[in-house]
């Protein structure tokens, strides 16, 4: 990618003030590149995962079990952002936590590269753990580059950061997916490890451009708190080891003994976390009001991601079995569908960023609430569109690839309305006490959505059934309309945040 570093005049004290990156602090380039390589590794492996799970030469599982594993894995990735944010706030600070996280992710991909079913799930666990440590902290560091919530460059900065995510996500299925599907599954997973290694190296070299306080531990644990935390962690780990050892030795263990508890945690924990923050007496009245407004955004985002993330599971498995994966007679790997969304993001994100700024100058930019509601309506519309290729497949024919491309296009427009704005509004509305942790709360919305998909799959619901797809589409559209109808109430709760 061509560099856009230029000498520029910015406010004194801004991190990296001697240079800018597309008009933003120089540290954004470091975080952009780190996230790009991390997403290269993550999305490359993710594009292979459901296909590997159902392939005769892979795990050979049925579609329902594969979707459940995929959904639980995604749910776990985002569930762990909450303790990841806590770890950054209380133990190492955001900068050191991101460096450690990259190393754990790389180790996880190397474990996936081993040709053993036993180590495969361990590899998934390591990637999920490392991703949880990284996600909340790197997004927090993006927010730290700016002069507070009112910096007009802030939303644009998160949009550019989002482009870094999608640059890595675009190339990874084309490279990792092709090697995994056409050469060897585990070699594809090994390439993901290489990508993460490059990300760690780049982060260490460019970290001098980050905000100085990204190295500070905002609220370090006391000696007593460290001791208590270690005791509790050891206790729960011991309980888990004993429980699963008993199940294994008694011959009663099945995969559902892992999948069901994790999916339930993915639904229950987000609710408990929101309740705990909302009831915290340390928050002043303004912070309490903003948290009440934030719950609306959280529920909207959970419904959005429940449908959106099925683009990598439900839609991918449908494409593998029921789509004509070719254009003008040229066949391509199924994993390449996962490059459609990021290439559309890269094409449209700058347009959206410019459009919001242009409207803002005229005082006509839609509110965050309107953007969220529109995103929900669009993701619902994408599943109404999905009914067409499902009908074609039910008639015994292969659905054209362009049907799937149209679905991904509709979801992408919805994503641009909801996701970058959601990252930004989370940093704006976060109570001071929960700095990095609030970014983890935002990702818990993804956890709740993916966990719901996992529960449906475990329960035997056919997510490729027309009735279920229509029901999900209707739910999203109805939620979007509800958000729009109550926009005035939510705006009043948001206080000075717009």
UniProtKB/TrEMBL annotation:
The keyword Transcription does not apply. It is found in: Cell membrane; Membrane. Keywords: Cell membrane, Membrane, Transmembrane, Transmembrane helix, Transport. The keyword Cell membrane applies. InterPro entries: Dipep/tripep_permease (IPR005279), MFS_trans_sf (IPR036259), MFS_Transporters (IPR050171), POT_fam (IPR000109), PTR2_symporter_CS (IPR018456). It comes from the Bacteria. It is a multi-pass membrane protein. The chain crosses the membrane at residues 43-61, 67-86, 98-114, 120-138, 159-179, 185-205, 257-275, 295-319, 339-357, 369-388, 400-418, 439-461, 467-486. PANTHER family: PROTON-DEPENDENT OLIGOPEPTIDE FAMILY TRANSPORT PROTEIN, RESISTANCE PROTEIN MDTM, PUTATIVE-RELATED-RELATED. Belongs to the major facilitator superfamily. Proton-dependent oligopeptide transporter (POT/PTR) (TC 2.A.17) family. NCBIfam families: yjdL_sub1_fam. This is Oligopeptide:H+ symporter. It comes from Streptomyces cathayae.
